[in-house]
Design goal:
Length: about 375
C-alpha cells in the first residue's frame, strides 16, 4: 500500500471514530436573581433575560429531551419581582423555561421558610445532598440523555438568614451521594454546586469536593461569585456562568458510542443578546410579572458605571466609588465607605430608573452613620 492509500485509510478510520461518538449537551446558568428582563449593557446593547435564553435554547436544541438545562442557585432573590413574591415568580419562570434541575444558593434563605413553598412549586428537580428539611429535595438525580446515564449531584450553600433547615458537611454529603450514584450504573457524574474555586472566603470549593470524592466528576457547574470562567483542572472541567441571565454556558460532553466511556468535555459562553431573538411566549409571561412604576425615569447619567473591579485583585469599582462620593457629599462626611460586594449590576449611561438602581444594589443595604 502506497503512502497516499495509507493516509486515506487513516482519515477514513479517524472520521469513523469521530462519527461514532455520542454527545450530551448541557446548558448552565447561575445567580439569575430574578433578572427576567433584558438590560442595556455597557456597549448600549440589550442583553439577557429569560426570553433570550429560551430563544437560544429552542434554536440550538429543538428537541429538549436531547439536552439538559441546569442552574446553580440564587434564583429566588434579587430583582423587584422576585423579592416581592418571595421567589414564587422565579419558580413560574423556571417552570416555563423547562429547567431540569437546580441547586440551592445562599440567597434562597432570604425569605426564610418561603424556600419550602418555592421548592414545592418548582417542576425542576431540587438537588442538594447537604441539606435536610426542604420538600422534594434529593441528593442526586440520574438523567439519560442520548443513551448516556448522567448523575447530577447538588451541593447547596447555607445562608445567613437560614434558621430552619439543617446542613451537613459538604464533603461527606458529596461522597455519600457519589457512592450511591455510582451503584446505579451511571456513565459519569456532574457536580452542580453553589460555590466557586476562586472564592477567597472559607467555603468548600468545587475542586475540594471533587478531590475528596471517590470518583473524578468530569464537569463541575459552579456559582455564587457571579464570575464567568471556564477552566480545566486535571480531568475536570469547571464552569462558572456569570449572573442575571446575561450569558448561558453550553457544555458538550463526548462519550464513546459503544462503551459510553467518557472522552472529553468542552464549554463555550453564549452572550444572550436580544438581537438574536426572544421567545414570545416567555416574554409575554415575564411582562405579566413586571411591577409598575419601577421603569419610570428618575434622571440621566452621561457616564457608564461598572460594578466589577477595575483591576484584577482589587475591590475598587466605578459604581462603588460613585456611591461612596454620594454618601460623603450627602452627609457632609470626610470619608464615604461602601461594601463593594453589595453591587451586582452596572449602571449604563442614559436613563436611570428605579429598576436600574435596584438591580445595581439588590440587597436593601442601608446607610450607617
Amino acid at each position: 500500500m502506497n503512502k497516499c492509500k495509507l493516509a486515506l485509510a487513516s482519515i477514513v478510520i479517524f472520521l469513523a471514530a469521530f462519527a461514532s461518538a455520542k454527545e450530551v449537551v448541557i446548558y448552565h446558568t447561575s445567580d439569575t436573581h430574578g433578572f427576567y428582563f433584558p438590560q442595556e449593557n455597557l456597549k448600549g446593547k440589550m442583553q439577557g433575560g429569560a426570553a433570550a435564553l429560551a430563544a437560544y435554547i429552542k434554536k440550538d436544541c429543538p428537541v429538549r429531551e436531547n439536552c439538559l438545562l441546569l442552574d446553580s442557585g440564587d434564583f429566588m432573590q434579587g430583582n423587584i419581582e422576585a423579592n416581592e413574591t418571595k421567589g414564587m415568580a422565579s419558580a413560574e419562570v423556571f417552570n416555563a423555561l423547562g429547567y431540569n434541575a437546580v441547586t440551592i444558593g445562599n440567597h434562597e434563605f432570604d425569605f426564610k421558610e418561603s424556600l419550602s413553598e418555592v421548592a414545592r412549586a418548582l417542576k425542576a428537580d431540587v438537588i442538594a445532598a447537604n441539606i435536610e428539611g426542604v420538600p422534594n429535595v434529593v441528593p442526586f438525580k440520574i438523567y439519560e440523555v442520548n443513551g448516556v446515564r448522567l448523575a447530577v449531584i447538588g451541593i447547596a450553600m447555607n445562608g445567613d438568614k437560614n434558621k430552619t433547615y439543617q446542613f451537613t458537611d459538604e464533603k461527606k454529603a458529596c461522597q455519600a451521594a457519589m457512592t450511591a450514584a455510582l451503584k446505579s450504573r451511571v456513565d459519569d457524574v456532574i457536580l452542580l454546586v453553589h460555590a466557586a474555586n476562586n472564592d477567597s472566603r472559607k467555603y468548600t470549593t468545587p475542586k475540594e469536593l471533587i478531590e475528596s470524592s471517590p470518583f473524578n466528576a468530569k464537569v463541575s457547574l459552579n456559582g455564587h461569585l457571579h464570575d464567568s470562567r471556564i477552566e480545566q483542572i486535571g480531568r475536570t472541567l469547571y464552569v462558572d456562568s456569570g449572573s442575571a441571565w446575561q450569558q448561558v454556558s453550553k457544555i458538550t460532553m463526548e462519550f464513546d458510542d459503544d462503551t459510553n466511556r467518557f472522552n472529553k468535555a468542552a464549554a463555550v459562553k453564549i452572550d444572550l443578546l436580544t438581537d438574536s431573538g426572544e421567545d414570545e411566549e416567555i416574554k409575554t409571561l415575564t411582562e405579566t410579572l413586571r411591577k409598575p412604576g419601577y421603569d419610570d425615569i428618575l434622571c440621566d447619567t452621561k457616564t457608564s458605571y461598572c460594578y466589577a473591579p477595575s483591576k484584577n485583585g482589587q475591590l475598587d469599582t466605578q459604581l462603588g466609588n460613585l456611591m461612596a462620593d454620594i454618601l460623603r457629599e450627602r452627609y457632609k462626611a470626610d470619608v464615604g465607605l461602601v461594601n463593594t460586594t453589595t453591587f451586582k449590576g452596572n449602571l449604563p449611561a442614559g436613563k436611570v430608573t428605579k429598576r436600574s438602581l435596584v438591580q445595581a444594589m439588590p440587597y436593601g443595604d442601608y446607610t450607617a452613620l
